[in-house]
Amino acid sequence: MSSTSAVSKWNRPDRLKGGRMQKALEWCGWESEAAMANIRAGRFLTNYGQYHLSRKQFIVAAIAAALLIYGAVYLFYHSAILSFMAAALGIIAPRHRRNSLLAQRKERLKLQFKEALFSLTSSLAAGRSLENAFLSTLDDLRLLYPDPRTELLLEFQIVRFRLDNAEPLEYALRNFADRADVDEITQFVDALSACKRSGGDLLEVMKRTSVIIGEKLEIEQEISVMIAQKRFEGRIMMAVPFVFLAFLSLAAPDYMAPLYGGIGYLLLTAALLFLLLCFWLMAKMMSIRM
Q: Under a CB-based contact definition with an 8 Å cutoff, are residues 259 and 267 in contact?
C-alpha cells in the first residue's frame, strides 16, 4: 500500500469527526467561516427567515446559559463536578437565542410595515402614483426611524434603487416579500399584483387592504403584549423554587443536610425533573403562533 493511500486512510476518520463537529456546532448556532465572510461582505440580501449569530452573540449566550445551569444544578446537588458537567449543556443556548432574535426581528418588521401602510395610503389618497407613493413612504420612514439600519428602511431603499433601474415595482416588492417571510407583507404584495394585472381601482383596493392588514397587526400586537406579561410572570415563577432553595441552604443548612445524601439525591432529582417538566409546559403554553 502506497504512502499516499495510507495517509488518506488515516485522515479519513479525522475528516469525518471534524465534519460532524462542524455540523453539531452549526446546529447550536455557530456559523461557518464562509457564511460569516459573506455576511461581513454583504454579498446577499437579508433573508428574514434566517438569523445568523455573530461570534460574540454565540459566546455570550453560551457562557450565560452555562453559568445559569451551573448555579441551578449546584443549588440542588452541591457538587461542583456535576455542575460543571451540566454546564456543558449551555452550548445549546445559542440555538434558542437565535430563534428568539429571529422572532423579534420579524415582529419589528411587522410593526414597521404597519406604519408604512398608513403612509402609503395617505400618499395614494393625495393623488400620487403607486411608485411615487412608495418613494414618499421612504421619506416618511426616515423621519419615523432615524436609525439607518432599520429593517424596512433598508428594504424600501432597495425598492427605490430597483425602481431607478427601471425594474417594475411588483417585482421588487415580490422579492422583498419572499425574503421577509411575513404573511401580512405577502398578502399585501399579492393584492397589489392582482390589482395591477386586472386593472382594478388601485386606490380603493390598497386602502382596504391597508386597513385590513393594519387592524390585523394591531390585534396581534395587543395579543403579544398580553403574552409578554404572562411570560414575565412565568419566568418569575420559574425562578422562585431556586431562590427558595438558595435561601434555605444559606439560612438553615442543617435543615437541608438530609437531602444531600442517600435517598435525598433521588428526591432532589425527582423535584428537578418535575420543575423542568413544568417549565417546558409553561413555555409551550406561551408559544402562541399568530
A: yes
CA distance 198 to 195: 5
- Cβ contact 27:63 at 8 Å: no
CA torsion, ordered 182, 185, 191, 197, to nearest 10 deg: -100
Q: Are 130 and 122 in contact (CB under 8 A)?
A: no
Please check whether residue 248 lies inside any domain of the structure: no
pLDDT in tens, 28-75: 777 766 666 666 655 667 888 888 888 888 999 999 999 999 988 888
Residue 208, domain member (yes or no) = yes
* Dihedrals phi, psi of 145, to nearest 5 degrees: -125, 95
Question: Does 40 fall in a domain?
Answer: no
The model carries a pTM of: 0.79
Say if residues 53 and 94 touch (Cβ distance below 8 Å): yes
Please report whether residue 185 resides in a domain.
yes
- Taking the C-alpha atoms of residue 230 and residue 144, their distance in angstroms, rounded to an integer, is 30
Question: Residues 167-191: pLDDT tens digits?
Answer: 888 888 899 999 988 888 888 888 8
Q: Rounded to whole angstroms, how far apart are CA atoms 147 and 6?
A: 58
Domain count, the chain: 1
Closest CA to 119 of 152, 86, 97, 150: 152
Domain carrying residue 172: 105-215
Q: Which residue has the cell 395587543?
A: 222
Q: Which letter does DSSP use for residue 31 in this model?
A: P
In three-state secondary structure terms, 186 is: helix
